[in-house]
C-alpha cells in the first residue's frame, strides 16, 4: 500500500508544480488554493509512505516521478522541446526510479 501512496504522491507533485506555474506568482486565488491542496496531499502521502519505505528510496522515487511528470507536462501542455537528449535523460531517471524500487 505504501508504494501505491508514494506513486500517487509523486503524481500529485506533478500536479502542484503545474498549478504553481498556473498561479502566476500566487496572483490567481483559485489556482493558488488548488496548488495548496495538491501540495498538502503530496506531502501527506509522502509522509505516509515513508513510514515503511526507506527515506532515501522513497524520496528519490517521489522526486523522480515528479520530475518526469513535470517534464512531460512541459512538453505536452507548454510546448517545451522534446529533444532526444532530453528524452534520454528522462529515461535515465525512470530507470533509476525502477531500479530503486526493485533493489529496495
From TrEMBL:
<feature type="transmembrane region" description="Helical">
    <location>
        <begin position="30"/>
        <end position="50"/>
    </location>
</feature>
<keyword id="KW-0813">Transport</keyword>
<keyword id="KW-0812">Transmembrane</keyword>
<dbReference type="InterPro" id="IPR045324">
    <property type="entry name" value="Small_multidrug_res"/>
</dbReference>
<keyword id="KW-1133">Transmembrane helix</keyword>
<dbReference type="GO" id="GO:0005886">
    <property type="term" value="C:plasma membrane"/>
</dbReference>
<dbReference type="InterPro" id="IPR000390">
    <property type="entry name" value="Small_drug/metabolite_transptr"/>
</dbReference>
<comment type="similarity">
    <text>Belongs to the drug/metabolite transporter (DMT) superfamily. Small multidrug resistance (SMR) (TC 2.A.7.1) family.</text>
</comment>
<keyword id="KW-0472">Membrane</keyword>
<keyword id="KW-1003">Cell membrane</keyword>
<protein>
    <submittedName>
        <fullName>Ligand-binding protein SH3</fullName>
    </submittedName>
</protein>
<feature type="transmembrane region" description="Helical">
    <location>
        <begin position="59"/>
        <end position="79"/>
    </location>
</feature>
<dbReference type="Pfam" id="PF00893">
    <property type="entry name" value="Multi_Drug_Res"/>
</dbReference>
<dbReference type="InterPro" id="IPR037185">
    <property type="entry name" value="EmrE-like"/>
</dbReference>
<dbReference type="GO" id="GO:0022857">
    <property type="term" value="F:transmembrane transporter activity"/>
</dbReference>
<feature type="transmembrane region" description="Helical">
    <location>
        <begin position="85"/>
        <end position="103"/>
    </location>
</feature>
